[in-house]
Amino acid sequence: MPAIIEPRSELIPGPATVAALVAQLVEGTWPSTDEERETLFRHLLFESGERLDHDSDASSAASYTLLTDLPGISFASWNLFHGRFMSVHFHLYTFPKARAPETRLGHDAVSGMLTDLYGPPSRPWEDQEVPPSIWKVNHREIVTHLFTTRESSLMLSISDGELAVAAEAEATHETGDSDRIVPSQ
């Protein structure tokens, strides 16, 4: 009788690789100019891709695809706010089915490593099966969010904390441009 070979459930990228990438983004100096962002991207082997929103948008935010050779990332993007580098976002361990166990395994492993590095996360709300987790480190915000309803994916975001707060406040502000919140320079 032929031997039965069990499929390997190896996470790609490995959770240690993901945690090391996060550490590089939160423990170093956050880029304050486009030249510094480009230097960081070259160091991390990232490339800026196409703009995701339209140049004609009146918004003070801009989003771009982020290209990387890191295997296992189904989608990545980066954002500007008032011309300043605000954040990067990755979708990892993505499967076209609800509640994929590999996605949950990846989430738990990455979250565990981030907790080992940066302490327990905050959870702004607990009304989900797995609520988002937020770590605040070195004026940065690391967010993980597990999605499993239709397809499964782990979203990982790393943001400049001040810019992210200002962008959120501006996005929800309803009185017009005269009261726009602009982050300190």
**Strand line-up across the major sheet:** 1-2-3-4-7-6-5
Strand content: 25-35%
- Structural class based on helices, strands and sheet pairing: alpha+beta
Which outline best applies? globular
Helical residue percent?
25-40%
Overall average pLDDT = 87
Our measurement of the CA-to-CA distance between the termini, rounded to an integer number of angstroms, reads 70 Å
- Unreliable residue runs: 1-8, 177-185
Major beta sheet summary:
7 strands, antiparallel
By DSSP, the count of extended strands is: 7
Number of discrete helical segments: 4
How many structural domains can be distinguished in the coordinates? 1
Radius of gyration: 18 Å
The ordered string of helix (H) and strand (E) elements is HHEEEEHEEEH
Structure description:
By secondary structure, this protein is an alpha+beta fold. The chain has one domain. A seven-stranded antiparallel sheet has the order 1-2-3-4-7-6-5, sandwiched between helices. The longest helix has 18 residues. The N terminus and C terminus are likely disordered.
